[in-house]
Amino acid sequence: xxxxxxxxxxxxTEYMEYTEKExxxxxxxxxxxxxxxxxxxxxxxYIMDLVYELMEQDN
Length: 59
Fold this sequence. Notes:
Largest sheet: 2 strands, antiparallel
Order of helices and strands: EEHH
Mean pLDDT: 83
Radius of gyration: 14 Å
Low-confidence stretches: none
């Protein structure tokens, strides 16, 4: 399932689709501060794993 994100620049609006993995990364980043102090390190590792996985994907 792909979701859409909207960018508004001046009077132009651009829609960008993103994948489920990208959505997972966005949610993880949003939850990162909530994990402090007990789960912060685990969230950091999880976020970096998602970043590396997305970087290695074939587009």
